[in-house]
Amino acid sequence: MDAALLGLSTIIIGVGGCLGYFYFSNLFLDRVLFPPKGENAGRNINRANQIRPWLFVFPAMFALGLYLGYPVFETLRLSLIDRSQDNAFVGFANYNQMFAEAKFWEAMRNNMLWLIVVPAVSTAFGLLVAQLTDRIGWGNIAKSIIFMPMAISFVGASVIFKLIYDARPEGTAQIGVMNAVWMSFEGGIGSFIFLKVFPIILILSFAAMVAYIGYIVLRMAGGVWVMVLKLVAALFSVWMVVLSVQSVWGVATANLPYGEPQQWLTIPFFNNFFLMVVLIWIQTGFAMVILSAALRGIPEETVEAAVVDGANPFQIFFKIKVPQIMPTIVVVWTTITLTVLKIFDIVFAMTNGQWQTQVLANYMYDKLFRANDWGVGSASAMIIMLLVSPILIWNIHNARKEMR
Amino acid sequence: MAGVNLSGIIKRYGAVQVVHGIDLDVAEREFVVLVGPSGCGKSTTLRMIAGLEEISEGDLEIDGRRMNRVAPKDRDVAMVFQNYALYPHLNVADNMAFGLRIRKMPKDQIATTIAETAEILGLTDYLARRPADLSGGQRQRVAMGRAIVRHPKVFLFDEPLSNLDAKLRTQMRAEIKRLHNRLGVTSVYVTHDQVEAMTLADRIVVMNDGRIEQIGTPMELFNNPVNTFVAGFLGSPPMNQMKAQLTETGARVGASEIKLTGAINGNAGRDVIVGIRPEHVTLYPGDQTAALPIQLDLVEPLGSEALLHGRFGEDPVVFKTETNGDIAHLQGVNQVHVPASLVKIFDAETGRALRLEH
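Above: the input entities. Below: the structure tokens describing the complete assembly.
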């Protein structure tokens, strides 16, 4: 059968099946099981109404149980046995084997990098766009365009960005935007400003921001937990500042290969960021839409009161608007974090984990379906779930608090 | 502390003009109330004073300085909003301190100012609470506290009591009056409630359709409304207005005639509107009273007073009279009397008051 026809008939059968299920199951409940007539009419109505919600919830619970609940336990089981030894129970041997692999730790490191960069940048860009487009006439057009990448699949976006990062031999026309721009730098004063001074300013302002945030956290008053948080935040910000200073030194002393087309995706460490750009490009639209709605929900009077109180636009944004939408920011942040922890398609389609870009989900895929090592593959799947769960729970907790 | 001067203030939204030239001088320490039906431009005028709306034309001066192009924060005004507009993420103390911190007041000074203000407003026990945990009246107090701590030149109130229930409103009304007596800050207060206007104002500005109808002390406006709009707006129940025609000796309403003592001055035959305050009538004739035959159809007892609903000619009328503890004797009333000097005459076409010499 033709693929389109197959798809269409699947849709018809699926939707029709759903409608038929709800219609006939309710019909059965009301006509046969507990008909609202006879001497027990009142009791029957009550019973039917007690059962009805379960009729609606059952299909979802069944499907989730079969395709989500059961696999969790099966994966847990698989991670503890060895199929080559006739399914013998091996305890944590698979985990130990995995922890001994450098590629796993590379995936862990990269995942952490993704975890820090992508949610932060996407949320920040989303908030920025939401605020900037709030009051202007063509804001909605701008928002529509920025939202559009949401409609593109991760693999499709990866293909687009692969073309952007594409390299052709020296002397031929570059079809990749990145290389086309790169080739225009020749080592003169323009290159010095754009590739040395500008990045250094960027890194230094990042360092200043981290230091300032660390300083703010340090001044917070509170109990034991806040003390722990303060310590962690302080160490983290010191670490970030040290990294920044190192990077500044690196940028300043780097000998850039001007005039040579670059294979961007093969440059270790930085290629991770080139991959992240794809996800940021997609997720900014999501953050923007949610945060834009939240910004609209802020009572106009509080902003006007702040204006009369003498606040400037920045103070209004950071001291009046952002605190009021903080719960939404947290939900957006954690939602993107969940997407990031499970990130697979982009890495799979663009580098497949080569040149030190491996991430956990792709590592799992590698082990499960390429190496056919079910034990280690399942173990890495469990690790991903372990990382996702707390954030997921927190996210649900926050979303519920929002709804109340 | 300073006066506020508006001259020829006009507000346009695109091609639509909503405020058509406001001239108003608010003296130092004065409490001026802008009152009018919704959509009359009173809030827009207030927001122009605050700087939240741009002034399309005309001049605004605060303390003798032209403010048209001055940013709200530099106008040194404080505003109390209808929905309180408290910052929901800050507690009471931080809400009040926000403006002071923005202005970089030293910390210890902020603390003392807030402590003092909280004392005045009875908020000392609530300083650590969030707005969500306060009652309506308390929120309103915080909103006022936020205005007070700034020690501004001018207070602006935008219908601050309209979200409170009737009892609390009366209470807060008195509190605002007391605060003004104590602090003596120039205040402009917007409301649609004529009772609030009458009780609070040093001077009332009655607005309608983007124009000022009349400016004056509450009693001036009550006693001598310049037109039927002001006459109908102030007073509760409002002034009765009946279509009539002037004769040589009085005003003819339908079949009956109200004898007027004042000189008609050759205006006989002119179509007019006769205005009579509900509380000006008596049940018994007195010296120089005009008799009004009415058809009574409802008596509403209010306690010491009762409202008589009825018809005079074709116009529905409401009169207020004392009950003396009993309303039985009011059921048969078919005639009320009004002192001729208290009858108001308005031109039927323009609605302007006609001055009759008594």
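Note for the figure: The interface with chain B takes residues 299, 301-302, 304-312, 315, 319-320, 323-324, 326 of chain A (CB under 8 Å).
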